[in-house]
Amino acid sequence: MDTTFLQTLGLKDQNAGTSTGLKTMDSGQYIESYTPVNGQLIGKVSQTTPEEYEQVMAAAQAAFKTWRTTPAPVRGEIVRQYGLKLREYKDELGRLVSYEMGKSLQEGWGEVQEMIDICDFAVGLSRQLYGLTMHSERPNHRMYEQWHPLGVVGIISAFNFPVAVWSWNSMIALVCGDVTVWKASEKAPLCAVACQNILREVLKENDVPEGISSIINGDYKIGELMTNDTRMPLISATGSTRMGKIVGATVAARMGKTILELGGNNAIIVTPSADINVVLTGALFGAVGTAGQRCTTTRRLIVHDSIYNEVKEKMTKAYGQLRIGNPLDQNNHVGPLIDKDAVQNYLNALEAVQQEGGKLLVSGGVLEGEGYESGCYVKPCIVEAEHDYKTVHTETFAPILYLIKYSELEEAIAIQNEVPQGLSSAIMTNDLREAERFLSAAGSDCGIANVNIGTSGAEIGGAFGGEKETGGGRESGSDAWKAYMRRQTNTINYSTTVPLAQGIKFDLD
């Protein structure tokens, strides 16, 4: 297999991972990264020690003092240049994402394109960090609000989007005047090092302060240093609901802020008026893309009983055409799960749902033989299930789709909303009333609600995030930038007296 992209990204014999932007540190203790594609060792990344963490934080704090007073459009220029560098390295970085994480090459390239898109968005944002002006009730007074940088923003990302989610946070934070410290998933650490290597070129070319963007490496213990650190006013964490509850409680205890992007158990409602071709495309990609390892993966297909058999037959046939294999081969639709623990979770869920009464329409299992040596390739499957099964209410990060029947739209919406997660949702319909009902306040309770597209594939222009056990945070577009800044209300008195608000009198003789 051609892995020259590793050398291009500066990852050949890469052992130093902790970085303060321009400098790297090597603790002598390493995280090994194995590709799920073939089980081979890709490389090693130095684990961050507590002492190195303190060096990173010192560099970040020092950089913030300069970066926060750098004009926002100038900060945007640095992000613009990073976007240009990503265009140069799109092929290589996309291949690394595919190789280290296991998603298809098309999705790997698509993830880097998301990084490029968020850079473009952030550049425009750097000239639009608007506040409001308000009329004062007091004569000769002016009121307005402005937004200031928060400080050091901690970013904890997950393996399934090893580069894009960092960029959603970091590029927005940088133009807002913050500096960032990134702990990538220990399951995909080389992607973080590659992103930092590319960014380092921009920092050197522009003489940017050391420490505006740093990376640290390790397991939950290094994450605990971040969540307990009062020098980090904001932690943005992506991962499981279990992890998010710990992070949220810890940061809240020190009065810090969080952006939490956690679990999803996303459904598509299919109504009688739906275009079946649209249903098949949206549901298939949503269910098997990234081998079911997206927080926005379609896990439940809720189908009206009048078209249930038709949808079941056509979905089953479509699954039979899927090609599973090396994700760097563009002929394949589905790559491997991230590791053997994920495979076991997949098998456990299949066993559990069958014990509850679920019926396999497309059988699952682990693939063996030539090309599947890593033991991480599984078959995407469809299970006919009842909506209230415990397994159906549990997020399994694997390509398992539950097929559920309904009779009335109100029933379908209730089924959609009854799970504890609330990230993404969709309805397939050509009936305007059904669409509007689904999007109304009495409809989907998710942070994302789509009509005639699937549950995955969010664009960076909209704020991304969910409700309930998904965490409630928002990243990426719209006004999500406000989470990375602090609001300040200002009142200026340009008169010669000091009138008080609410007509209060406080006169002295």
Please characterize this protein's 3D structure.
By secondary structure, this protein is α/β, with parallel strands linked by helices. It folds into 2 domains: 14-262 and 471-489, Aldehyde Dehydrogenase, Chain A, domain 1; 266-458, Aldehyde Dehydrogenase, Chain A, domain 2, CATH 3.40.309. It has helices spanning 4-8, 50-67, 72-88, 90-101, 105-125, 164-175, 189-206, 220-227, 241-253, 276-288, 308-319, 340-355, 409-417, 432-439, and strands spanning 18-19, 24-25, 30-34, 41-46, 133-135, 141-149, 152-156, 179-183, 213-216, 234-238, 257-261, 266-270, 298-304, 359-362, 381-384, 400-406, 421-422, 424-428, 448-451, 463-464, 467-468, 475-476, 485-493. A 7-stranded mixed sheet has the order 14-15-16-13-12-18-19, sandwiched between helices. The termini are far apart.
CATH fold annotation of the largest domain: Aldehyde Dehydrogenase, Chain A, domain 1
Count of runs of 4 or more consecutive helical residues: 14
Which oligomerization state do the chains in this entry correspond to? single chain
- State the shape: globular
Q: Give the tally of structural domains.
A: 2
Strand proportion, as a percent range, falls in 15-25%
CATH class category of the largest domain: Alpha Beta
Q: Give the integer mean of the pLDDT values.
A: 96
CATH A-level architecture of the largest domain: 3-Layer(aba) Sandwich
Structural class: alpha/beta
What's the CATH H-level homologous superfamily of the largest domain?
A: Aldehyde Dehydrogenase, Chain A, domain 1
What characterizes the major β-sheet? 7 strands, mixed
